[in-house]
Write a sequence for this structure.
């Protein structure tokens, strides 16, 4: 006998349905495996529950956010089965409680059955809220769309006003940047600021998510990330790890309901000694292309901003030399390069092709490659590439 759709449980996993889920479903829930080649939002629409077992991806923030975003578009409640060690996933999902529920992946069938029942009872409220939202959107759709387009244009202009209008050149240190939003507004933001006679601070940050919520979070990051404290007639430079720690606490304190996570890499370069102090928060590793052709990955820190209020972010230091090039980038670049390569592709290997070119030629070649991908395969994620060069003379 086929069960009604309101008793259907969608199973999202690379594995077969686990025994504890099958036992918990019993006679009440029809377990239907999700089609990996079809959009999750369409499959989840009208289905009370989606049970997700990440299969090793529990601490991949982008994958988690993608699943949550697709479930946001449906009216299903997501139940995530997580291993105990998946610290980032537990933290991310706990801060988005309501439509998403976390359970240990080895939970007993009795516990899962209770969870499924409670989640199923929540789903009608979500469906009612979504109907109200759809009804409000249906009012004067043409006028609303035109107004929204104009608001997005203004938001795009405002966001770009927050970006540096020029990049400082101090001593041998030179900067350049490639900034390519996926739409009107970007979830990426960067800054390069001269802090005193010999120090320049810089960062690239990437809000997890897309569109206006991500863009608004970048505005918060711009104002909240402090690289320098001024007290009277004196000042102190804030260590990058401390800056990220304070930013993380500020984001967590806002208790945002969506798009509350971000990644960042932040550094301060001493233009006299050519040393860089840096810290990283879940962001792609910066790449240091040495003048002799060697490539060094700068790894330090792996937790996102906005997950755990008390999280600390260490710091590291690297010595630059004349002819070196330091490249910071958001993960949209990796997505574009993978699309261009037609499969797994190392960012370091791809960028090494242009590493010996002048900064403008380096970024122009990269820009052409990105635009080629977008022309043939459609929009990619937001992309930011910040380049720091040490001139030879």
């Amino acid at each position: 006998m086929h069960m009604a759709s309101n008793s259907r449980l969608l199973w999202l996993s690379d594995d077969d349905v686990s025994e504890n889920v099958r036992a918990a479903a019993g006679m009440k829930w029809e377990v239907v495996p999700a089609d990996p080649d079809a959009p999750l939002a369409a499959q989840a629409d009208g289905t009370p529950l989606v049970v997700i077992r990440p299969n090793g991806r529990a601490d991949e923030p982008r994958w988690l956010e993608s699943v949550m975003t697709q479930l946001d578009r449906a009216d299903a409640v997501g139940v995530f089965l997580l291993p105990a060690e998946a610290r980032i996933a537990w933290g991310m999902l706990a801060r988005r409680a309501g439509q998403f529920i976390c359970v240990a992946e080895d939970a007993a069938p009795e516990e899962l059955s209770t969870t499924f029942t409670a989640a199923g009872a929540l789903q009608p409220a979500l469906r009612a809220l979504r109907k109200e939202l759809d009804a409000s959107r249906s009012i004067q759709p043409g006028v609303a769309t035109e107004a929204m387009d104009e608001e997005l244009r203004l938001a795009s202009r405002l966001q770009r006003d927050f970006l540096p209008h020029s990049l400082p050149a101090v001593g041998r240190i030179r900067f350049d940047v490639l900034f390519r939003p996926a739409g009107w507004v970007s979830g990426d933001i960067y800054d390069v600021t001269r802090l005193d006679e010999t120090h320049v601070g810089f960062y690239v940050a990437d809000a997890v998510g897309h569109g206006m919520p991500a863009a608004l979070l970048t505005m918060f990051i711009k104002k909240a990330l402090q690289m320098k404290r001024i007290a009277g007639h004196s000042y102190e430079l804030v260590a990058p790890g401390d800056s990220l720690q304070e930013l993380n606490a500020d984001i967590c304190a806002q208790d945002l309901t969506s798009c509350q996570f971000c990644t960042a890499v932040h550094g301060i370069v001493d233009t006299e000694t050519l040393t860089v102090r840096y810290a990283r928060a879940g962001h792609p590793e910066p790449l240091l292309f040495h003048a002799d052709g060697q490539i060094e990955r700068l790894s330090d820190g792996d937790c996102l901003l906005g997950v755990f209020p008390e999280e600390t972010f260490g710091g590291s230091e690297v010595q630059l030399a004349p002819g070196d090039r330091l490249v910071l980038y958001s993960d949209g670049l990796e997505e574009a390069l993978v699309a261009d390569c037609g499969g797994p592709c190392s960012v370091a290997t791809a960028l090494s092709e242009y590493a010996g070119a002048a900064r403008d030629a380096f970024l122009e070649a990269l820009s052409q490659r990105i635009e080629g991908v977008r022309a043939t395969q459609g929009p990619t994620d937001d992309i930011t590439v910040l380049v720091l060069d040490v001139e030879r003379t």
